Amino acid sequence: MTQQKIQNPETQVAKTPQMNERDFINDMLATEKYMTDSYSTALNEASNQQIYTDVLAIFNETQNCQRELYNVMFQKGWYGLEAEDQTKIQQTYQQFQGYSNQFPYGNNGMMQ
After folding, report:
1. Is position 91 within any domain?
2. What spans are recorded as compositionally biased (Polar residues) (predicted)?
3. Range of 37's domain?
């Protein structure tokens, strides 16, 4: 079975040595992804509650910005998705559900 592509019509941009709209948005998206990764590390290592709270607020703003940029790229047809067969999704879910039974702390990740 072939996978169905989910994508909007692609907005055409000039193919020149200069950066175009797609290049700029793609660069901003990559930067936002890098920043959310870095803020996530900072959150894991924050030893002070106020710093944690401040970084968490910045992380959330950055994550939301990243999502908005992704949505713009999807709307312009610069990102596409492939629909997966429902049977394959169910098989993969069952496979990983079986793995979760092997976790030392149960399915919720907490010690019991």
Report:
1. no
2. 1-19
3. 19-80
3-state secondary structure of 78: coil
Give the whole-angstrom CA distance, residue 102 versus residue 15: 51
The verdict on residue 104 lying in a domain is: no
Summarize the confidence of residues 28-49 as an average pLDDT. Answer: 96
Rounded CA separation 111/89 (Å) = 29
At 4 the three-state DSSP class reads: strand
Task: Check: CB of residue 41 under 8 Å from CB of residue 11.
Answer: no
End-to-end CA distance of the chain: 44
User: 89: part of which helix (H) or strand (E)?
Assistant: helix 86-100
pLDDT digits (tens, 9 = 90+) for 62-99: 999 999 999 999 999 998 888 888 888 888 888 888 77
User: How far apart (Å, rounded) are the C-alpha atoms in residues 32 and 53?
Assistant: 19
Three-state secondary structure call for residue 5: strand
Asked whether residue 55 is assigned to any structural domain, the reply reads yes
Contact in structure between 80 and 5 (CB atoms under 8 Å): yes
